[in-house]
Amino acid sequence: MTVLYFAWVRQRLGTGEEQIELPPEIGTVRELAEHLQSRGGAFADVFSEPKRLRAAINQEHAAWDASLQTATEVAFFPPVTGG
Amino acid sequence: MKICVQREDFDLNAELDALKHKRPPVGAIVAFTGVVRASDTVSSLTLEHYPGMTEREIARHVEYANGRWPLFGVTVIHRIGELRPGDNIVLVAVAAEHRRAAFEATEFLMDYLKTQVPFWKQEAGQEKSQWIEARDSDEAALTRWHQD
Question: What pLDDT is stored for residue B127 in this prediction?
Answer without folding.
Answer: 85
